[in-house]
Every structure is written in structure tokens, then in C-alpha cells.
Automatic annotation (TrEMBL):
Taxonomy of the source species: Bacteria, Bacillati, Actinomycetota, Actinomycetes, Micrococcales
Protein name according to UniProt: DUF1349 domain-containing protein
InterPro entries associated with the record: ConA-like_dom_sf, DUF1349
One Pfam family cited in the UniProt record for this chain: DUF1349
Amino acid sequence: MPESHIIAWDAGTWTNDPQTVTETDALEVTAIEGSDAWRHTAYGFVHDTEHALLAPLAVGEAMEVSFRAPWDGQFDQAGVFVRIDAEHWMKAGVEYADDHLGLGAVVTAGGSDWSVGHVDEWLESEITVRVSRWTDAVIVRARADDGPWRLVRVAPFDGTAAASAGPLLAAPTRAGFTVRFTRWTRSEADVDLH
């Protein structure tokens, strides 16, 4: 992976303020109950109440976010949010649903889609999600601890639009979900898919 540079927590702006934010050597963030990001598809509703700490992401750049959380609330989620505007965004990371931890992504262009696969073996791990922005796509990879990177998604994404990205959390069904974000970095985008 290319050389990375730490992004300061105060370099980002929240899409929606979390319940609490505590900065030590990490950033501990507690979500507001009912927070989520989704548009229309299958469920019919629109939620734009996620907590995402965003900084600019240019074509040719990548961002990585590392985190830990107690995965036990239905639809608890954390990862990376990449946003152009309210109708064009992507969230990628892990979500706890139906007693399983799932690794996946939601890509939204007017409506949202969702791809996910179980990674229950990651429940106790520090998880890192990496997004690389190409001229026509965002490439998502993830790993647990120092394990191998997994390709999660290749998603269409407008390279001509200004976009921002950064740490994400949401708690659609409960209060008290706290994520410990341990690292936020920027580097050059990955040049290969494989």
C-alpha cells in the first residue's frame, strides 16, 4: 500500500452531530438512536441521519479508517462514508444484523443498494476499511487486524464531482452504540484491482 498520512480528527466536518465525541489517542463516538443512511429501495424510506466525519477526497486519493466496536445491536454499523451530495454517496464497512456481522457496501444514486457477506470471525477485531477513488469508480477493501485485504466492492462514482469521505457510524435501533475510531489516513489510490 502507498505511504499514508494521518488526518487529524478536527480536519473533518460531521454530516450529523453524534450524541457524544471524546478525543484521546483515538476518537470515541456514540451514535444517536435512529441514525442511519438509506434512500428508498426496498424499504421505501429515506434516512440521512448518519454520523460521518468528512474531509475532501480527490480522484487519485485513498482513505483508510480503522475502528473497534461492541457489535450487538441490530443494524449497528461503522466504516467509511463517501459523499457527493444527498442522493450520491456510498457507505462501506461492517453492520451487525440478525446476529451476524456483515461486511459490505451501500451505493446510492437516487436509490440505495446493499451487498453484504458474513464476517463473524471479525467480531473482536480492529477493522480497517479502505476506499480508493478512481476517475469513474470507488474501490473498497477491508481487513481485520493485520490480516489480508479483501476486495469488497467496485462501484461507479462520478470523478468530475467534488466528494468527501471519512469515518461513519450509525445506530438505527438503539441508544448507546459507541465506536472507537483508532486511525484515519490519506494516501494515493490503489492502482490495481487485484
